Description:
The complex is a heterotrimer.
Chain A: H1 2-33, H2 41-59, H3 62-86, H4 91-114, H5 137-140, H6 146-154, H7 159-177, H8 179-189, H9 191-196, H10 201-227, H11 239-249, H12 254-274, H13 285-303
Helix pairs in contact in A: 1-6, 1-7, 1-10, 1-11, 1-12, 2-3, 2-4, 2-10, 2-11, 3-4, 3-10, 7-8, 8-10, 11-12, 11-13, 12-13
Chain B: H1 14-18, H2 23-48, H3 53-65, H4 68-93, H5 101-118, H6 124-153, H7 157-179, H8 202-208, H9 221-238, H10 240-250, H11 252-257, H12 262-289, H13 300-310, H14 315-338, H15 345-360, H16 366-411, H17 416-438, H18 442-451, H19 464-470
Helix pairs in contact in B: 2-15, 3-4, 3-14, 4-9, 4-12, 4-13, 4-14, 5-6, 5-7, 5-12, 5-13, 6-7, 6-12, 9-10, 9-14, 10-12, 13-14, 13-15, 16-17
Chain C: E1 2-10, E2 13-22, E3 28-33, H1 39-46, E4 54-59, E5 62-64, H2 69-74, E6 77-80, H3 92-97, H4 107-124, H5 139-152, E7 157-161, H6 169-184, E8 188-193, H7 196-202, E9 205-210, E10 213-219, H8 225-233, E11 251-261, E12 267-277, E13 280-285, H9 292-300, E14 307-312, E15 315-318, H10 325-330, E16 333-336, H11 340-344, H12 351-354, H13 372-385, H14 402-414, E17 420-424, H15 432-447, E18 451-455, H16 459-465, E19 468-473, E20 476-482, H17 488-495, E21 506-507
Parallel strand pairs in C: 3-8, 3-9, 6-7, 7-8, 13-18, 13-19, 16-17, 17-18
Antiparallel strand pairs in C: 1-2, 1-4, 4-5, 9-10, 11-12, 11-14, 14-15, 19-20, 20-21
Helix pairs in contact in C: 14-15
Amino acid sequence: MDQIELLILTFGATLRVAAPLILAALAGLYSERAGILDLGLEGKMLVGAFAAAVVAAATGWPLFGLVAAILMSVAFGLLHGFACITGKGNQVVSGVAITVVASGLTGLLAVSWYAAGGRTPVLSRDARFTPINWPGAEALADVPVLGPIYSGVISGHNILVYLALLAVPATWFVLYKTPFGLRLRSVGENPQAVETAGISVPRIQYSAAAISGALCGIAGAYLSTGHGAGFASDMTAGKGFIALAALIFGKWRPVQTMFACLLFGFFDAFAARMQGSALLGEVPDQAVQALPYLLTIVVLALFVGKAVAPRSLGKPYVKET
Amino acid sequence: MSEALQDLEPEIVEEDIALDLPRWIDVLIMPTVNVAAALAVSAVIIMMLGENPVSAVRYLISGAIGYQEALGYTLFYTTSFIFTGLAVAVAFHCGLLNLGGEGQAYIGGLGVAVVCLNFGFLPPIFVLPVAIAGGVLFGAIWGLIPGYLQGARGSHIVITSIMFNFLAAAVMSYLLLNVFADAEQSSAETREFAATTWLPLIHDVAKHFGYSIAASPLNVSAVLALACCFLVWFVIWQTAIGYEIRVVGKDHLAAVYAGISPVRVIMVAMAISGGLAGLLAVNELMGSQHRLTLNFVGGYGLVGVAVALMGRNHPLGICLAALLFGGLYQGGSELSFELPAIPREMLVLIQGLVILFSGALSTIFRPHVATAWHRRHEARDALRRQRERLRAAHQRRRAARAQQAQRTAKERPAPAVTEEAEPEIYLDAYVAQEKARMRGEAEFLEHLRKYGQLPEQPDPEPPPRRRRRWLPRLPRLPRLPKIRVRVERDDDD
Amino acid sequence: METLGINKRFGRVEANRDVSMVVREGTIHGIIGENGAGKSTLMNALYGYIRPDSGEIRIKGKKVRIRSPQQAARHGVGMVHQHFMLIESATVLENMVLGTERGFLLQPSMDQARAQLDRLKQGYGLDLDADALVSDLSVGLLQHLEVLRALYRGADILILDEPTSVLLPQEAEFLFEIMRLLKSQGKTVLFITHKLREIMEITDHVSVMRDGRMAGHLKTEETDIRELSHLMIGRQVFLKPPRALGLSRYSVLDVDRLSVLDNHGHQRVRNVSFPVRTGEIVGIAGISGNGQSELLEAIAGIRPIHDGRIVVQGVTIDKRVPYSANIMRRLALAHVPEDRKRVGLIPEFPAYQSILLGRQHDPEFGSIGLGWRKVKNFCRRKMNAYDIRPPDPHMQTSHFSGGNQQKLVLAREMENEADLLLVGQPTRGVDIGAIEYIYQRLAQLRDQGKGILLVSAELEEILFLSDRIVVMHDGEVVGIVDKVNASPELIAAMMTGHIPEGTIGVVRPGDTDALH
């Protein structure tokens, strides 16, 4: 029974760990399906997290924080878009620049404004997205097997976790069932063909960059005002890059990408929970911390060769006039 | 395209003409403009923080080069940044953005420490080269693995190299806390290296030769850094493997066609890159700290990206960029001491902005500079041509008039002096007037282009109607061409 | 439809100079010209993909402004591009609706398109599965899709840009049928090609372009191939067929039961065997995409061998041997790649660095450091020999014209003192003057006793140059034909995979002994 309970708790934790990964990976999906490599996910999440924490701390409303996070992150997304679409710059360098700028800017402002070593004030419960307990979760918790699953895995997360999970079918729908999705997919494959079909390629790409920014903003807000209780400098700790690896692992498809994120989340949660337990024995802290990174490398090394990327990914689209 | 037309002229595409600039502009002006943009944005942010950017710059400069010790520190940081900048540049020539300098330097530090802690009893002449080699080797291995994964498995190097930074941090913190932990110290660092493994400090060397310089951690690895600059230049531009690295950086298919194995070349490039990053540990540990400490790399690996991009991946440029960042780092600590509202995190922001403007947005300003340059030249040339033409006409007229005068002088004396002076005045006034117009008037140039010259005898005073047309127009912003990149065209286009 | 004084410059090159023409409604109007004569530029201007610098376009007497493909579609202009403008990972139907979808959901547009597609398919007797992935379709079907898409968008004027260059002769014939059908329904067809025979067969009127200008407008009935070719090229061209030598017994290359995979792991070359002897040109004929490119790349050392072996100069190479282009070069092999501008040069490098590609380890150019001065001299010599303009080794490779870039590669590879020369598409994208020179040079090299393996999509070229012809279909050798027995009809028939009944002089893949 203990084992099962542990597993259920781990699954609950998996969702909480995976939620920002899912959001960030979907953000990357929009961008990369439109042919723009997005190594700026990390940076956009970071500015999102910072903006959310600052605004939530100032107003006491997490929702305002979320809006601020989305705005900031979209701004950075559009900056990346400007460099890649209008400037036709190196997309890899641009993404990295976005990330470094974000890291520097958030660190600078956090230290300068709050003078607390790069942290923003700890948010009170009201200023955060708090877990929502679904009706009857308490009551059903005692029902064997199903009860704990309902109360521990399905119920009891904050709204952003559910938003992340909803974003997956929504993305699938947009991608495969709407004209915009068709255009998005087409731009990533053959922008020339899209242009000759009379559609503005930059417009689609800018839209994708903006959507990507918005999703990253939500992910960032989740980190600082949902999962955590405030911003700490460089708190994303490579999550943006892990999300990219998950995106590649998921072959740039929404549902597979979600499962890839859940896999990453599960290992993370599992290792954290198993630490010091009988199953793994004494494992140094550092090994547990390093696990997601190691896993990312393994996934990239083993699966990337087989994944087929959008054909014109990373190539600036140049049209003669 | 247009093979049939090739007999006319070499094909130069419109974009290239518009963007055809003297080399010195590309090499000197453009990086300056890009960095200036980055610094301008930083200045705006400083103002947003409620500080005066001018005084910030003053503190920065005096902190960086204001006194001898500061200069020593600046050059010490410069040395580190040359190593990491070169590391990024070598990988970049191979088409790879190596963000793993941080981890490679960290693991390089492990290599240095292993040698220094275990072989400290040997004389410096043996142990120093071995320790340096240890740093290079360990760094190279840490760069080699992501290189292999990129080359053979196609795993994106940016992601893997960052993951390797996290791994390096985990490995090193484990080792420092559990294996190398110094029993006497509570902090996570090794015991001090034996003095035989310390690199000579420059001020000690100077003292040896009878000069007195303020003490600073600047050490002989600065010389090593300059040697590396030369070596990198030689390898990249003067050897077959460098050629292969550059070919792989441009096109893998072409490389395979040329009998180059991209996997092998990528691994070589990443090993060189990692090795160079490992040298950062030599400067930092053997030159200054004399022990392996937790997180001694402190973000310097990432500075290399900004340094390399700003220095256009050329050793010379990297030296200059490293000097700038060395100054920023040294001056920055002074600055954050004087103005606590501007903490050291400012430097990360500046790095990011430099990467953004010198790397990702490097093409943004170029057309503007090109337009300005061409406009200036076009106007100057047109003016010169016009002046020559007018002068020639004037001379002709004068000669004709002189002849006339000679002829008429025989008949009656002519009051020719004022008449003769008149065209001179008219010429200068005209030139001045045209000069003023040309500053912003594309239409005038258009006219020149169309008719090749101005009307033979323009009115000294333009008619009022024309004046109305010209004057109310404010000097317009230069019309900037869209940014275009050269287009690969199909054969038949 | 008419155009008046269209001008378009790319830099200093005037791709179109005062191009005017009149296309009558309900006719098939041919536009013919050499590579780079400006046909595609003109068509792109008509289709709104590029914007002419000056000039106007009138449709049905009314002046129209075509600034984008969408505007072109509104005026009833549709285009079938030479390189298909299709999304490979999408279905046929999705490609049809792309750009015409309306509303929030995709489904209604798709349903509408499906109905329309069915009607069009019936109307033109075409068969196309609406839900098939484009990447699974054959080239012929892709072209049908492009035509149907243009019609779906309401095109009255259909521009076909070199549509036959990728088709089998039978497929081309079918396309002509469709064109006639279109004409009978009152549509106007603009047909662009550089093949004179096709012009004579299908068009009503023809406009000839040369050097970016219109060289003449003719009624097809009132002209003949001779007049057209004169207008097209502007002078007589003498192409002297190379003289065939007696066959030598010594083979410089032996391909033995070779199999090669493509990048996706599909077997593209199956069990191919043939020799190349000293002093002969062996041509490989086949519709493009039937394994010729992969075969050439495998022999050049670019693509790994899946099975079988290659014997070069007596050295056997099979899949167990670590194998690269470098090794093959050491075995005195030179390779003019098909995609020269992409693969054979580095556009960002100055010319002298580009010309070193593949020879960077050549001791001639230095040992530890590269002797750039020697490389520059080498480059200058080649530039003079091949009349590359301007002969400036320092100029950036991409700044040379397309034809001169081609010549850079040809110069490097053909003057390589190699015993075996692999040549892919030697005249693709090269002007007529250079073609003459290249043919001459290939014949000379052959006469010097080198073995030459030639891959070309132009059947005429293969027939003209080769001493023996290896015909490939679907990765297999259909048969090997000696020059004396080869006729265009026979080779064309064999390219579809069958040897006509009662043919003599064809060596079938089984009897390899007959080759030696």
